[in-house]
């Protein structure tokens, strides 16, 4: 009787191993961190918050472009760790399914043997009772042999009952494996629908269309300012930071100029990320100290106001040399006509979609703001516009598409209060609030490439988003 017992023991041991694997390993594998899988035909969807992201977008209310790409995160694509984990899991389930199928065939074969034994045992038990009732008619020796055989078979009765239960469990395992395999195959097909290369090409195509769309936008009128986004906390209360609006898409260098006077050191960072982490790529020691915080980097050069003068300096980062310098005729300097916060902010240099500008005040214009468009190479004044807004009453100002926007304060409750269009030589009073989160703005400049305002807000380097009203060019426009 020992061989059948060994067979049953091997079967039960294998089933115990399967049960242990199913109950411990499988749930953790199936979890896949973000997706819950059940053994039914239903599949819990991946949460959009966890599995999807806006890859790129531009809005178009009232005539602005709209182009939004919504795509699965790359860690859901076919080449990432989760996808490999899913394929490995599916292979394990398939291997497990094959193993259970082999076990099932062996079980069915042995089960038929056990059923036959069960019939024989029942018949033997009945016969034994009959013999026991009539044992006086048989020889004592034969009776004893029969009783010993019955004693050997008795331990198989509970094993047989357990075997029947385990056979049902194997059937249940087969059903669960089948359901699980169906669910995993469904997930694989769903993920496989977003082939990485195909998805990448779609994103590239949409980004190209987005850039083409943005190029069709004519200069717009400021409608709203949102934010700010705090990029970094560093430096003194006053300073400037900027990127080059004419730089290529791959060039994201940041320049950092702390304080409004008594400094000549410009710090350069290769990217916003390096700027945030403090990983400087280079420093420049300017030949002159600067005045104020209203400098601008434009087409690879730094434009700044030389300390204690109305001279504008053009400094090349590539050569480390001064390329041009010119006196801004009649412009007040050294806190004669600063913004409300002071800090030698008499001359504000800025750039927009049209070119390079200087904003300042003169005695000839009664201390009111003068706007001058400059030649970026020679610093010669190309044209000037005289406004009626007192320079000392302005908190800060910036140019967008040839229009100067002036804030009423550098403190709390600041808003864009006044604008002057150089295209029409007209002004208007506006009411565009923005959140002065840190209560003291000493630098506010527009970057046409980023379509954002860079600000130095009480030792915080922040960004504001701007919403412009655009008119979209068409092929018929001349």
From TrEMBL:
Keyword Transferase: no
Pfam families: Noelin-1, OLF
Keyword set includes Ribonucleoprotein: no
UniProt keyword annotations, A-Z: Coiled coil, Disulfide bond, Glycoprotein, Secreted, Signal, Synapse
GO CC annotation terms, alphabetical: extracellular space; synapse
Domain Olfactomedin-like per the UniProt entry, residue ranges: 218-470
Disulfide bonds listed in the record: 219-401
Coiled-coil stretches: 79-141, 170-216
PANTHER family for this protein: NOELIN-3, OLFACTOMEDIN-RELATED
The protein's name: NOE3 protein
Gene source species: Elachura formosa (spotted wren-babbler)
């Amino acid at each position: 009787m020992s061989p059948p017992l060994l067979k049953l023991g091997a079967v039960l041991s294998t089933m115990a191993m399967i049960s242990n694997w199913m109950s411990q390993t499988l749930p953790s594998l199936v979890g896949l961190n973000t997706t819950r899988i059940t053994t039914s035909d239903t599949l819990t969807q991946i949460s959009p918050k966890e599995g999807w992201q806006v890859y790129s977008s531009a809005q178009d209310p009232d005539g602005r472009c709209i182009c939004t790409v919504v795509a699965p995160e790359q860690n859901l694509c076919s080449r990432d760790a989760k996808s490999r984990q899913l394929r490995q899991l599916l292979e394990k389930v398939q291997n497990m399914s094959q193993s259970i199928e082999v076990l099932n065939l062996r079980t069915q074969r042995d089960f038929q043997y056990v059923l036959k034994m069960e019939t024989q045992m029942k018949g033997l038990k009945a016969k034994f009772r009959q013999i026991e009732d009539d044992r006086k008619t048989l020889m004592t020796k034969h009776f004893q042999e029969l009783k010993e055989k019955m004693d050997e078979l008795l331990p198989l009765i509970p094993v047989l009952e357990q075997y029947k239960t385990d056979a049902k469990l194997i059937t249940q395992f087969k059903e669960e494996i089948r359901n699980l395999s169906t669910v995993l195959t469904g997930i694989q097909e769903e993920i496989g629908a977003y082939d990485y290369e195909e998805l990448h090409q779609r994103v590239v195509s949409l980004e190209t269309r987005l850039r083409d769309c943005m190029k069709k936008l004519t200069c717009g009128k400021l409608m709203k300012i949102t934010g700010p986004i705090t990029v970094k906390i560093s430096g003194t209360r006053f300073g400037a930071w900027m990127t080059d609006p004419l730089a290529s898409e791959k060039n994201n260098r940041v320049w950092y100029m702390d304080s409004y006077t008594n400094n000549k050191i410009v710090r350069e960072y290769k990217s916003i990320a390096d700027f945030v982490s403090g990983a400087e790529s280079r420093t420049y020691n300017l030949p002159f100290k600067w005045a104020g915080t209203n400098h601008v980097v434009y087409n690879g050069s730094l434009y700044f106001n030389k300390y204690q003068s109305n001279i504008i300096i053009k400094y090349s980062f590539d050569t480390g040399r001064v390329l041009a310098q010119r006196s801004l005729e009649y412009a007040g300097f050294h806190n004669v006509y600063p913004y409300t916060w002071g800090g030698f902010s008499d001359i504000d240099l800025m750039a927009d979609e049209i070119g390079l500008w200087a904003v300042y005040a003169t005695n000839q214009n009664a201390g009111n703001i003068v706007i001058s468009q400059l030649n970026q190479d020679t610093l010669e004044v190309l044209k000037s516009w005289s406004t009626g807004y007192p320079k000392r009453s302005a908190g800060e100002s910036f140019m967008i598409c040839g229009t100067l926007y002036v804030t009423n304060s550098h403190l709390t409750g600041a808003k864009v209060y006044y604008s002057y269009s150089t295209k029409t030589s007209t002004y208007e009073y506006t009411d565009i609030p923005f959140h002065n989160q840190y209560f003291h703005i000493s630098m506010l400049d527009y970057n046409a490439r980023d379509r954002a305002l860079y600000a130095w807000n009480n030792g915080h380097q922040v960004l504001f988003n701007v919403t412009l009203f655009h008119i979209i060019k068409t092929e018929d426009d001349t």
